[in-house]
What does this fold into?
Amino acid sequence: MTVLRYEIFGEAVDFVDCPDFADGFLSILRGWTFRAIPHDPHRPPYLVFEKNRGGYQWNSPWLTEQQRARRGKSRTVQDAVCDFHYEFIDWYADRHPRNFCLHTAAVAFSGGAILFPAVQKAGKSTLTMHLAMRAHPLLGDDVVAIDADTLDADALGLLPRMRLPLPAREADPGYSDFLAARAGLTDRHWRYAAMREDELLPLGARMPIAAVVLLDRQPSGAAELSSVTKGEALKTLIDQNFGIIDRPNLVYDRLKALALQTECVRLRFSRPGEAADLLSQTFGLPGLKSKLPEAAS
Amino acid sequence: MSNRGVPRIYRRHRTVREDELDGVLFLIDEEEKSIHALEPLGRAIWLLLLEPTATGEIVALLSEAFPGVSPGRIAADVRRLLSDLEDSNLISPQ
It folds into this structure.
């Protein structure tokens, strides 16, 4: 039995007979400290990933017996990493109790980050990648943390993940090639986009939030921006928060402050490339490298 | 014995923090660790339930207040919103 032990968030994490599983994780993370530490049998691991009888599985303190019994094994590294994807985010949220975690994409523009809160089938990830094609670095395509004190956005350093099959008809002509050049781990349902260093901000990189854009995808029609009430924007932000959930007064007061201090608009669109152009023209390309935030140490 | 036909009367069950922003009424419930956002219809129901009010009366009052919405749609929305508020332990039947 071969055990690779790493320390993440101060906890021991063991990979048992599955160095490929560890490599899979490393491939989807940017800016995370995966510090290899010697195995100490007196220090029990917080998390265990293992491969046995041809399958990958993991065990963690937050799984109930029932969940453990119900879980199947993943046949491939890709399936296993995708399976753990949201657990990673929950783990981050648990270790950052002063951060909200919002189910939203976040992209860098000249005045700061723009949030695109998740709305079912709104094309958030596709739009995000079209913005990346236009030199807007991503803070994340699915989840971003918000510091409850400063209301800055914090990147989680997780590669974007695209649902398969990729949209073909409405996307930019170069979209497929852009993604093909960045193809990362892929399972039956998802493909990670292995963004280049300047295309995805690492874990802990921080930006002020410039705007909240509610997406309204339509089957046809030109892209347009319109105003949205602060009340509707706040409702959306609250609905998408899953970080701090046990302090509703704090959640309300800080997310209200965020809604009041940022521009809130609705983007109606049918073609993500056209929408990305409109956003880029309206909010501006981020400045030169010196304006980008420093990565967290 | 069936309660069919007996008007169901609701009232607020307890006090929670309220705040309004651009027509959306937010109920911030520290006890149940939740936040509810009530848009015009839900907001109107919440205001009516300051006093015990029967479901039928709520539907009638809101049908007058929102003449552009069909009474059937209002009745369905009222039932759904009352059920949500009751499930959240914010209102209770008398």
Q: What stands out?
A: Residues 77-95 of chain A form the longest helix (19 residues). Chain A has eight helices and 17 strands. Chain A touches chain B at residues 229-232, 234-235, 238-239, 245-249, 251-252, 256, 259 (CB under 8 Å).
